[in-house]
């Protein structure tokens, strides 16, 4: 499955959801999660994300492995999002900030 990683936190551009053929993105307050049981590995969402937050599970960068389990966990409780919406208000600032895992709201 594909995995949303920390670049998404506090940005949430949502360009990714428009292209997903199986609607497996789920929306939280400041992050999206992919349901690994629904993702069909089509790869379409990867190029859509302006901050390159989405990786194949096997390619998730070393420091971001916790996001693999987090996507699976959060996707189970968060609602599905199928339509793109405006990014979060301070997306431009947060797009370049690293180590945002602690800022992820559940
Ligand atoms: Fe959806 Fe395809 Fe991205 Fe998986 S890889 S989340 S199926 S768009
Ligand atoms: Fe997040 Fe990128 Fe989608 S910032 S909401 S993974 S387009």
Automatic annotation (TrEMBL):
<keyword id="KW-0249">Electron transport</keyword>
<dbReference type="InterPro" id="IPR022569">
    <property type="entry name" value="Fd_C"/>
</dbReference>
<keyword id="KW-0411">Iron-sulfur</keyword>
<protein>
    <recommendedName>
        <fullName>Ferredoxin</fullName>
    </recommendedName>
</protein>
<dbReference type="InterPro" id="IPR054829">
    <property type="entry name" value="FdxA"/>
</dbReference>
<dbReference type="InterPro" id="IPR050294">
    <property type="entry name" value="RnfB_subfamily"/>
</dbReference>
<dbReference type="InterPro" id="IPR017900">
    <property type="entry name" value="4Fe4S_Fe_S_CS"/>
</dbReference>
<keyword id="KW-0408">Iron</keyword>
<feature type="domain" description="4Fe-4S ferredoxin-type">
    <location>
        <begin position="1"/>
        <end position="29"/>
    </location>
</feature>
<dbReference type="GO" id="GO:0051538">
    <property type="term" value="F:3 iron, 4 sulfur cluster binding"/>
</dbReference>
<keyword id="KW-0003">3Fe-4S</keyword>
<comment type="function">
    <text>Ferredoxins are iron-sulfur proteins that transfer electrons in a wide variety of metabolic reactions.</text>
</comment>
<keyword id="KW-0479">Metal-binding</keyword>
<dbReference type="GO" id="GO:0051539">
    <property type="term" value="F:4 iron, 4 sulfur cluster binding"/>
</dbReference>
<dbReference type="InterPro" id="IPR017896">
    <property type="entry name" value="4Fe4S_Fe-S-bd"/>
</dbReference>
<dbReference type="InterPro" id="IPR000813">
    <property type="entry name" value="7Fe_ferredoxin"/>
</dbReference>
<dbReference type="Pfam" id="PF00037">
    <property type="entry name" value="Fer4"/>
</dbReference>
<dbReference type="Pfam" id="PF11953">
    <property type="entry name" value="DUF3470"/>
</dbReference>
<keyword id="KW-0004">4Fe-4S</keyword>
<dbReference type="GO" id="GO:0009055">
    <property type="term" value="F:electron transfer activity"/>
</dbReference>
<dbReference type="GO" id="GO:0046872">
    <property type="term" value="F:metal ion binding"/>
</dbReference>
<feature type="domain" description="4Fe-4S ferredoxin-type">
    <location>
        <begin position="30"/>
        <end position="59"/>
    </location>
</feature>
<keyword id="KW-0677">Repeat</keyword>
<keyword id="KW-0813">Transport</keyword>
């Amino acid at each position: 499955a594909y995995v949303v990683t920390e670049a998404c936190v506090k940005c949430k551009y949502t360009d990714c959801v428009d292209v997903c053929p199986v609607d497996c993105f789920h929306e939280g307050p400041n992050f999206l999660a992919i349901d690994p049981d629904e993702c069909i590995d089509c790869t379409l969402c990867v190029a859509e994300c302006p901050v390159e937050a989405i990786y194949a599970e096997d390619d998730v960068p070393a420091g971001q492995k916790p996001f693999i389990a987090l996507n699976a966990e959060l996707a189970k409780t968060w609602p599905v999002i199928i339509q793109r919406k405006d990014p979060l208000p301070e997306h431009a600032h947060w797009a370049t900030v690293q180590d945002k895992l602690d800022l992820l709201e559940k």
